[in-house]
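Lab notebook, design round three. We kept the backbone fixed and only want residue identities now. Task for the bench partner: fill in a sequence for the structure below.
Input structure tokens:
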């Protein structure tokens, strides 16, 4: 995650969770890449060798990257398809109600 995006999330008291859609053998590569990049957010696997969670079907993911803004009540406020710029992120965060 870019430094400016990380700062935006932290300043808005929000969290990032990544859902990886790769098949299990490729998922190991993703975990290694995340460590190499020092990602600090959790990465959830859509499928493991033991189970398929089908987050992609539940959230109707049409391609990657796909980002969703979910409010404190767990409701999807907004979906964004494609890379998310710091300006896009700020515009999305500005739509959240102030607690």
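Proposed sequence:
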């Amino acid at each position: 995650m870019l430094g400016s995006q990380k700062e935006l999330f932290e300043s808005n008291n929000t969290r990032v969770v990544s859902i990886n859609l790769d098949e299990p053998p490729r998922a190991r590569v993703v975990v290694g890449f995340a460590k190499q990049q020092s990602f600090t957010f959790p990465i959830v696997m859509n499928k493991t060798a033991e189970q398929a969670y089908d987050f992609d079907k539940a959230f109707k993911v049409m391609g990657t990257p796909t980002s969703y803004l979910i409010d404190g009540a767990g409701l999807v406020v907004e979906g964004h398809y494609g890379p998310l710029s710091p300006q896009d992120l700020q515009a999305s965060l500005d739509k959240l109600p102030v607690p």
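Keep this in mind before ordering anything: The chain has one domain: 3-94.
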